């Protein structure tokens, strides 16, 4: 059975987005990435086992697929951008009740019935699934109990306020799978739901 892996950049004080447009993330969309080589290598290692990507409608429409498709073409031999090629090759599913058809390559649109659609994808063959979207999309998946593994990329920043991803669900106990600090200041904590 496939795992659904939620990867989110998060501040030290638990926010995934700032109310103001503050440059707090060590990696924004673009070519200026201040991750160190070891973090880039580990990120690619996780992505090597991903064959399906779930996206929010907003993330798809804001250019996520176009951006990483262009990065895969621009940096075809750069080992850091191996994940960009995986994004191009992977099956993408945009969960939305507003879209009816996909305008993106290797991408389908599924209804916004998160439990039904995600559970159906989990029983398929192949590698694990990664999910990318904003705070609201992540919160909905968490509240529905659909996330199997959390990969929280903790940035060395304190925002003081903003959007969170754990506000909709009730109490949940998590099991630490691993924690690793990197030279750039990022700490990646991996958790699964406690059994």
Structure description:
- With 195 residues, the protein is of the alpha/beta class.
- The protein has a single domain (4-16, 33-193), classed as Dihydrofolate Reductase, subunit A, CATH 3.40.430.10.
- Helices cover 27% and strands 26% of the residues.
- It is built from 6 helices and 8 strands; from the N terminus they run βαβαααββαβαβββ.
- It has helices at residues 37-47, 57-61, 64-74, 82-89, 114-122, 135-143; strands at residues 4-11, 50-56, 91-95, 107-110, 128-132, 149-155, 174-181, 187-193.
- Strands 4-3-2-5-1-6-8-7 form an 8-stranded mixed β-sheet, with helices on both faces.
- The protein is globular.
Number of helices: 6
Biggest sheet statistics = 8 strands, mixed
Q: Count the strands?
A: 8
The CATH architecture is 3-Layer(aba) Sandwich
Mean pLDDT: 88
What is the terminal separation in angstroms? 17 Å
Q: Which blocks of ≥5 consecutive residues have pLDDT under 50? A: none
Give me the CATH fold name: Dihydrofolate Reductase, subunit A
Q: What is the CATH H-level superfamily? A: Dihydrofolate Reductase, subunit A
Number of domains: 1
Described by the principal axes of the CA atoms, the overall outline is globular
Radius of gyration: 16 Å
**Proportion of β residues?**
25-35%
SSE class = alpha/beta
Can you give the helix content as a percent range?
25-40%
Strand order of the largest sheet: 4-3-2-5-1-6-8-7
């Amino acid at each position: 059975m496939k795992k659904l892996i939620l990867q989110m950049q998060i501040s030290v004080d638990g926010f995934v987005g700032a109310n103001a447009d503050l440059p707090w993330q060590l990696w924004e969309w673009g070519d200026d990435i201040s991750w160190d080589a070891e973090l880039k290598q580990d990120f690619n290692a996780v992505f090597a086992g991903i064959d399906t990507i779930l996206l929010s409608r907003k993330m798809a429409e804001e250019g996520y697929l176009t951006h990483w498709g262009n990065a895969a073409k621009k940096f075809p031999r750069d080992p850091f951008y191996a994940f960009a090629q995986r994004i191009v090759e992977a099956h993408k599913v945009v969960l939305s009740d507003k879209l009816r058809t996909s305008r993106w390559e290797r991408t389908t649109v599924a209804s916004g019935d998160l439990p039904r659609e995600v559970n159906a994808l989990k029983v398929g063959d192949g590698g694990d699934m990664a999910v990318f979207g904003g705070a609201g999309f992540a919160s909905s998946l968490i509240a529905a109990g659909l996330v199997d593994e959390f990969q929280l990329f903790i940035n060395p920043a304190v925002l003081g306020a903003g959007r969170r991803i754990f506000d909709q669900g009730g109490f949940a106990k998590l099991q630490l799978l691993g924690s690793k600090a990197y030279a750039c200041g990022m700490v990646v904590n991996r958790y699964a739901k406690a059994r």
